[in-house]
Amino acid sequence: MMHDRVSTGIRGIDDVVDGLRLGDNVVWQVDEIGQYGRLAARFAGQAKRDGRKLIYVRFGSHEPLFAPDSDTVIIELRADRGFERFAASVHRLIEREGRRAFYVFDCLTDLLADWHSDLMIGNFFRVTCPYLYELETVAYFAIIRNAHTFATIAGIRETTQVLIDVYRAGGSDYIHPLKAWNRYTPVMFFPHRIDGDEAVSITSSAEAAELFAAVARGEDRLDYWNVMFAQAKEALDAPAGQQERVKMRLLKMLAGREARLLKLCGRYFALADVLRVAERQIGSGFIGGKSVGMLLARRILEAAGGDRFAPRLEPHDSWYIGSDVFYTYIVHNGWWKLFMRQKTKEGYFRCAAELREKLLTGRFPDNIRERFMRMLEHYGQSPIIVRSSSLLEDQYGNAFAGKYESVFCVNRGTPEERYEAFEQAVRTVYASAMNEDALVYRQIRGLAGEDEQMALLVQRVSGDEHGDGYFPHAAGVGHSTNLYVWEEGIDMNAGMLRLVFGLGTRAVDRTEGDYARIVCLDNPKRQPPMHAGDRRKYMQHEVDLLSFREGALVSRDADVVLAGGIKADRSLIAAPDDEAAARMRELGLTDRPAPYIVDFRGLLERTDFPSFMREMLAQLAAVYEYPVDIEFTVNFTPDGAYRVNLLQCRPLQTRGLGRPVELPEPSDDCFFASRGGFMGGNVRLPIDHVVFVRPDRYLALPEQGKYAVARLIGRINKALKGRQTMLIGPGRWGTTTPSLGVPVHFAELCHMTVLCEVAPEESGIAPELSYGSHFFLDLVEAGIFYTALMPGEPDVIWHPERVLAQPNMLIELVPDAVPFEGVVHVARTDGMEIFADIGSQRVVCR
Predict the structure, then answer these.
(1) 301: Cβ contacts below 8 Å, ≥ 6 apart
(2) Distance CA 787, CA 772 (A)
(3) CB 94 within 8 A of CB 128
(4) Is the dihedral of CA 600, 606, 610, 613 positive or negative?
(5) What percent of the chain is predicted at pLDDT more than 70?
(6) Which end of the chain has a smaller Cβ tally under 10 Å, C or N?
(7) Where residue 1 falls among pLDDT bands split at 50, 70, 90?
(8) Taking every annotated instance into account, which residue ranges of this chain make up the domain Pyruvate phosphate dikinase AMP/ATP-binding (predicted)?
C-alpha cells in the first residue's frame, strides 16, 4: 500500500489527522446531513482539482450532497431491492472502477428505511470497506449520531481507517477524531473547532467540558428492527386503519416480496399474529417461504374453517431464524468475496463447492449464539428439526421440494452437546443452498440471479417417546389435486395423501423396497392396481424414527416398532398379517414379533380422517386459488381421537389431465405399450431421441461402473437440452442404491421429455410409482411425463429392438464415452410418438 497523502479539502483537518491515505475509508458521525454535505463537498472539490476520478454513490432519501457536474460520476442504486443486491452492485462498481478511484456515499443511516436493520448496515460496511482499501481508494461515508446500536458503531470503528465525530454547537462546527489508523499527531484526538480552513484545537478543559455538555450522548439502543416491532405493539390499541397500516409494513419486513402470498397474509393475519411471530424470531430479515406457508395455512383453517379444523389441529411451537443471520454468518467468517464470485456466471458452479465446505465450518457471532442458546432452553430436551425456509421456497411455481436440507436434532446430552449439534444442523442447512441440485433447479427456473436468502424454521418434532424411539403415529403429504389417476372413476379434485407410519421422511423421499400408503380421498378404500399376492410386498416395511440411544434418525422394522407399544390403538395403523403369521409358525419362527400390514385401514375406515383431510385441502386450495401441497403428522390419543399437525403448505405445480387423446392400437411395430403406471395426464408427444440404458448390460456392471453411467446420463442430458427426448432404463431412476436402478441426480435428467422405468424380467428390480414424493414433484414442475413398464405382465408390449436397431449416437454426443457404448444406446427416432389416455389408462409409444 502506497501512503500518498490525500487532502480532505480542509487544510486544518488535514493537519489534525496528518492527511488521508490511499486506502482510507472515512466515516463522519454527524447530527444532521448538512454537516456531512459540507465536508463531502470540500472533499469532492479537492479531488477534482487534484485530477482524481470521483464517484458519487446515490441511494439516500436526503438531498444530494453536492451539485453534479461533468467531472463527477453519479451512480444511483436502489436499496429497496435488499442487502444482497445492493452490496453486490457496490462490489461490482468498485471492481469496475478499479484502483485509486475516490468515492462519496450517501448517508448509511438512510439504509434503515429499506433494510430495517442496524445489523445489515454493519454487514454492508464490513464487506465493502476492505475491498475499497485493497484497491487504494478513498471513500467518504456518514452515519447519524444516536441512530444506531453501539455494536454497529463498534463494528464500523473496527473496520474503517478513519472515524470522526462532527458536532454543531454555539453556531460553530467541531470535529473530534476517534480513530486515525496508522498515523499520529500531538493534537489528533482533541476536539477541534473548524474556523474557515483552519482547525483550532480545544485543549482547555473548561472549553472541552462546555462543548461536550452541549452534545447529546444517547444511550445504547435496540437494533432498528427491534425498535420498529416495539413501536408496533403500541398500535394494538389504535384504530383499525392504523393497525392495518402497521401490520402491512411489518409483513413486508417478515414475509417477503411475493405479491400473492403477501396479499393472503394481509387478509388472514392480524397485527397481534405478526407480533407473535416476531417474538419468536432470531435476528432480522425475512422468515422465508416455508415458515410463511405453514403460518398462513394455519390461520386460513382457523379463520375460514370455523370449528371444523381448529379443534383437530395440534399447536405448533416454532422459532424463526431470520434471513439476515445467513448473510451475517457469511460476513462474520470473511466469505463475502467468495459469495460474490459464486454469484457470477463463471463461478456459479465452480465456487459453490468451496463455499459449501466453508459454510459447514464457520463460527456465529456471540450475540447470535446467545439467542440460539435461549431458544434451545425453551425446547429443553425435546427433539427439534431445523428446516430450510429460503426466500424462494414454497412460492407459486417454485416449490424447491427436497432441494435444501432439513436436519433432525435428537437434542439429548449436556447443554454444550445439544448446542453444538444444533449449530451444526444450522450450518448443514446453510450449506445445502450450494447443493448442485438446488443450483441447477434455480438455473432451470431462471432464478440463478435472484437473492436466495436462507432463513430457517425450527420446530419441535411432532410425536412422542416410544421406548428408545421418538416419532408421530403417522405422517405424510397431501395434494388437493390428485394427479395420479389410475382408473376412470377417480375424482382428481378430491385430493390424495401419501401416508406413512412414523416420521414423514418416508413420505417425501423415494425409499428402497418400501411403499407409502396412497389414499384417494374420494374413496379411501381404493388402492393402486396390484396383484393380490403383492399386498405385503407393496407396503411399508420400515419406520423412520429418532433413536435416543444412537442420537440420530434411524430406520426400524415396522413389526418390531408395533410390537413395542405405541400408546395408541394399533389397529388404526396396521392389521395383523395372518398369512405371514401362519408361515412363521410353520417355520418355527416363534421368537419374532407378530407380522403386520401397515395399511391405515382403521384410520381410513373407522374415523372421519379422510373427510377431514379432504375438506382441509379443499379449503386451502380455495383460498390460495391454486392447488396445494401439504406436509403433516397425525398423533392419536389413547381413546382413538386424532390430531393433525400441519407442518407445511405450498402451491402445487400441476399440469392437469389435458384433453382426451385418441390412442393408436398397440401393434408389433410399437416400441412399447402398457396399461396404467403413468403420471402426467393425457398426452401426445413427439420423441426425437431415446436414451436407453440396456438393463442386462447395466446390471452386469460393477458398482463403480453404475455410478459412471449415472454421470454419463448427466452429460447426455446437457447435450440433448431442448430436444424431445425419452430416457428409459432399469428399475428406479434417482435411486441411492445402484443395484436397484441408475443413481442419477435430478439435475442429470432435468431436460428429458419422458422418463421411463423398466422392470427387467427375472431381475428382481422394479420401478416405484412414488407419487407425492419430492422426486415426483420435480417431474411435475419440470413437465416430464413418467411411465413404468413391467415386461411379461398382461397388456404390456415391449420391443426394445425398435430403438436398438437404430445407430448409436452416444459417441457423437459424448466422445469419451466409448467404454459404455454397449450399455447406453442413444437413438434418433424422428417420427416416434408417445400417447397416453387417462380414461382408458393406456399408454402407447410407436
Answers:
(1) 309, 310, 313, 616, 619, 620, 646
(2) 15
(3) yes
(4) negative
(5) 92
(6) N
(7) very low
(8) 287-656
The CA distance from 634 to 472, in Å, is 6
Domains in the chain with CATH codes = 5-213 (3.40.50.300), 224-460 (3.30.1490.20), 472-537+555-651 (3.30.470), 672-845 (no CATH)
- The whole-angstrom distance between residue 38's C-alpha and the CA centroid of its chain comes to 46
Mean pLDDT of the residues in the chain:
89
Beta-strand relationship, 642-651 and 628-636: antiparallel
Close Cβ partners of 122 (under 8 Å, ≥ 6 residues apart)? 151, 152, 155, 156
Average pLDDT over residues 476-487: 80
Distance separating alpha carbons of residues 376 and 395, to the nearest angstrom: 29
Give the pLDDT confidence of 793-839 residue by residue, as tens digits: 888 999 999 999 999 999 999 999 999 999 999 999 988 999 988 77
292 three-class SS: helix
Instruction: Report residue 139 as a C-alpha cell.
Output: 471513500
Predicted pLDDT of residue 600: 95
Those residues whose C-beta lies under 8 Å from the C-beta of residue 704, and which sit 6 or more positions away, are none
Q: Of 681, 683, 675, 618, nearest to 485 (Cα)?
A: 681
**Angle ∠(480,485,488) on CA atoms, nearest 5:** 120
Grid cell, residue 479, equals 395434494
Q: What are phi and psi of 567, to 5 degrees?
A: 55, 35
The beta-strand segments (E) located in 780-837 are: 785-789, 797-798, 824-837
User: The sheet that has 642-651: what strands, in order across it?
Assistant: 517-520, 496-500, 474-479, 628-636, 642-651
- Smallest CA-to-CA distance from 671 within 839, 485, 835 is with 835
Residue 820 C-alpha from the chain's centroid: 37
Among left, alpha and beta (phi > 0; psi -120 to 50; other), residue 222 is: beta
- Check pLDDT > 80 for residue 765: no
Query: Among 68-77, 307-316, 783-792, 830-839, which range has the highest average pLDDT?
Result: 307-316
Residue 473, CB-side half-sphere exposure with 13 Å CA sphere: 25
Q: How far apart are CA 30 and CA 8, in angstroms?
A: 16
Question: Which tens digit of pLDDT belongs to each residue from 483-502?
Answer: 766 666 778 889 989 899 99
Please, what sign has the CA dihedral across residues 522, 526, 527, 528?
negative
What CA–CA distance (Å, rounded) separates 621 from 298? Answer: 13
Helices 289-304 and 609-624 meet at what angle, rounded to 10?
110
